[in-house]
Amino acid sequence: MSQDASRAVVISNPQGLHLRPAHGVVTLASGFQAAIQVSREDGEVADGKSMLSLFTLGAAEGTQLVVRAIGEDADSAVQELADFLEKLEDLNIDEGAS
Predict the structure, then answer these.
(1) In which element (H, E) is residue 27 found?
(2) Among 40, 22, 35, which Cα is nearest to 88's?
(3) Hey, which bits of 1-98 come out as E strands?
């Protein structure tokens, strides 16, 4: 039976959802069978398994996003992805890191 789960998060990283954190989202999302969507409050929706699609969101610091998953592992997918997005600032992921 297919599950549907979602959770709102706010981007706290001062650099927003740039290359490295977007890659992290795609890497995490790709480990789940569920379809993953990330959307903005204005209704723009991105495929959570596509870096290009995530970049179209233009998610700067303070942007509220909703992570949604549909599939057998939807609950765990949303939990892991939302936790990752909420902790971007704490993870020290920035463009200058090597």
Answers:
(1) helix 19-30
(2) 22
(3) 3-10, 35-40, 45-47, 64-71
Joined together, the tokens standing for residue 83 give 């936790």
Give yes or no for a contact between 39 and 66, defined as CB atoms under 8 angstroms apart. Answer: yes
CB atoms within 10 A of CB 58: 11
Q: Is 23 a catalytic residue?
A: no
Residue whose pair of structure tokens reads 């971007």 in the numeric block: 88
Q: Single out the catalytic residue among 3, 7, 15, 18.
A: 18
**pTM of the entire structure?**
0.87
pLDDT tens digits, one per residue of 15-51: 999 888 999 999 999 999 999 999 999 999 999 999 9
Angstrom distance (rounded) from CA 22 to CA 57? 11
Q: How far is CA 20 from CA 6, 56, 70, 71, in A?
A: 23, 15, 25, 26
